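Quarterly update, task 2.4: SN-glycerol-3-phosphate-bound model.
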Amino acid sequence: MDFFLDTGIISEIEEAATWGIIDGVTTNPSLIAQTGRTQEEVITDITKIIDGPISAEVISTEREAMIKEGAKLAEINENIVIKLPLTIDGISACKWFSDNNINTNVTLCFSANQALLAAKNGATYISPFLGRLDDISHDGVQLINEIRQVYDNYGFQTQILAASIRHPMHVKECALIGADVATMPIKVVKQLFKHQLTDQGLEQFLKDHANANK
Ligand code: G3P
């Protein structure tokens, strides 16, 4: 399972990159807005830290404008993945990028049928938003299950990129189902390392070592 960091904050990416477990980065217009910088500046900086897929989302809403905007973003670096919203225009633009060998991440997916549409047009990644479904009392994890089943039924190569992940249980459940990627904020990545028995055990080992070497 690949781990992507869901952020536009460079210091977070620099910190997590040293851990060796981060395979890529996802951003969205809200995350870029939090940085107070342009998308091009942020994405260019990320390419200097991470040698893996980096999702950059188009702001345009019409097919031709999406293609123009996405093609320009793709010129920044070969690792750029063009993020497109799950609309008729977005799915149609996805076909153009697939035909032109540019990787895509179809975002704002909330149903298995939407995921099927993205896969039919050759999306590299589909981003179902777990947390936002849970927020409205729908089962986000169940959506990952359904998409896995649909893709496996037909052998689609589109990778399931579980997004809007809020806590470690989401990560574990997605891994059990076989989601290809989990993108998460740095807070959740840090939580994955934690276990109270690890902390207690380490404390005891160090105490015993110190006592034996007085
Ligand atoms: O980047 C897309 C997604 O991960 C956003 O998450 O927490 O804003 O629902 P969230």
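Highlight for this quarter: The first strand starts at residue 2 and ends at 6.
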